[in-house]
Amino acid sequence: MGSLKARFKEKADSLAIEIKDILKTHGNKVIGEVQLSQIYQGMRGITGLVSETSLLDAQEGIRFRGYSIPELQEKLPKAEGGSEPLPEGLFYLMLVGDLPSANDVELVTSNLQRRSHVPNHVFDTIEALPINSHPMTQFVVAIMALQTESHYQKRYAAGMNKKDYWDAVFDDAMDLIARLPRIAAYIYRRKYKNGEHIQPNGLLDWAGNFAHMLGYDDEGFMELMRLYMTIHADHEGGNVSAHTTHLVGSALSDPYLSFAAGMNGLAGPLHGLANQEVIKWIFEMREELNTESPSKEQIAEYVRKTLTAGKVVPGYGHAVLRKTDPRFTAQMEFGKKHMPEDPLVKTVWNIYETVPPILQSLGKIKNPWPNVDAHSGALLVHYGMVEYDFYTVLFGVSRALGVLASLCWDRALSLPIERPKSVTTDLVKSWLKGEGEIWGE
Ligand code: HAX
């Protein structure tokens, strides 16, 4: 991919020089302070990472290279007749920092098509797993099986110069993004559709072809996939999947190893698995109440029951956001446009009106508002994709766009191995008594 790779390299070289200058002049500037509580509480609020592809504002939500989701919906190229952005365009934007033209996006799409072949041993590896393995387990195992194809791994073993790391990471990132939809669709059709697989359609865009291979050729579902793959792609650098991919990559593990590690983090219920938990929770509520359309009073009662049982209300809360997630809002708008009368979608909206005041009343939850996962499942169910165990795989395919673009930047900027300092509570206690040294004092 001559042009995108060359364009990326040009941008990376110029930013690398700028960063060198910034650090030379301002490297000693203090950026914040760390409180004792923060090191026991998930490092919340500590700025300690650089991630070029997107930035999260607590009040406003995510911006990808400065563009909000509504701006992306307006400015990124679309499929013919469609109104949602093509995720390939977002990948281009995250990678090089400029909005792509329709032609730029076409080139990315065709490049991904050329790279999309998945070797048979990957499917054999998936087949070796019990059918009841969770789809995220199958996904991660398949990514690991695909690692045989890593250019980075082969070139490193052959003695690659460190100046070339970014080049091999770029090729692996493109290959992975190209192949993930085929792998994900294979897992879906294997587990839920009697192994009746669907061949790719080379005339479709990346997300449209993914929808097709999953077995959903409805134009509405294709549009949903384009939106879904765009809004789930990145959420700055500190979330578990992005941070893990970056961390593992910092040991110079190849992109397959790094991305698989990130996906293991995405599979946690406090992160990406929350999307399946939301629909599971709503289905259980509907079953228990024996109604397809629970009232707000019934929902409130069920929320209190969930909290009393010592469980979280899935899809609500966030470690950084303090307002309704704009990714939730984008999906709500999609629902209003395409399925305003769908009972499950309406239930999601009723939950939105019911849950925040209840969570707020507990007095301990910093963000009572919905996140991206509160809405996504209901839209999928509308088009017939009811197998909620699979939802996090969809999230994972999308997340590849952001974390792999970031990994290209990590190597192009020669970011070093990540290694923060940890302490023991014994050391903290003696430090509090004025004995012993801590944090380089
Ligand atoms: N339901 C019930 N309790 C909640 C809650 C929720 N939705 N959100 C937070 N809390 C609780 C916390 O568990 C914590 O309780 P304890 O003090 O008893 O341990 C307390 O409120 C304070 O938490 P916080 O500071 O507001 O939130 P954190 O930054 O620690 O955690 C989470 C953020 C997203 C993990 C949290 O809000 C949560 O568990 N939400 C539900 C799961 C979810 O939707 N996850 C997806 C998040 C978005 C994402 O990554 N998508 O992939």
Automatic annotation (TrEMBL):
Q: Which GO terms describe its biological process?
A: carbohydrate metabolic process; citrate metabolic process; tricarboxylic acid cycle
Per its record, what are the GO molecular function terms? citrate synthase activity
Tell me which EC number(s) this protein carries.
2.3.3.16
Which pathway does the database say it acts in? Carbohydrate metabolism; tricarboxylic acid cycle; isocitrate from oxaloacetate: step 1/2
Q: Which Pfam families match?
A: Citrate_synt
**InterPro entries xrefs:** Citrate_synth-like_lrg_a-sub, Citrate_synth-like_sm_a-sub, Citrate_synthase, Citrate_synthase_AS, Citrate_synthase_euk, Citrate_synthase_sf
Enzyme class label: transferase
Keyword set for this entry? Answer: Acyltransferase, Transferase
Q: Which domain of life is it from?
A: Bacteria
Tell me yes or no: is Chaperone among this UniProt entry's keywords.
no
Q: Chloroplast: is it a keyword of this entry?
A: no
For this chain, the family text in UniProt reads: Belongs to the citrate synthase family.
Q: What is this protein called?
A: citrate synthase (unknown stereospecificity)
Species assigned in the record: Paraflavisolibacter caeni
Q: What is the lineage of its organism?
A: Bacteria, Pseudomonadati, Bacteroidota, Chitinophagia, Chitinophagales
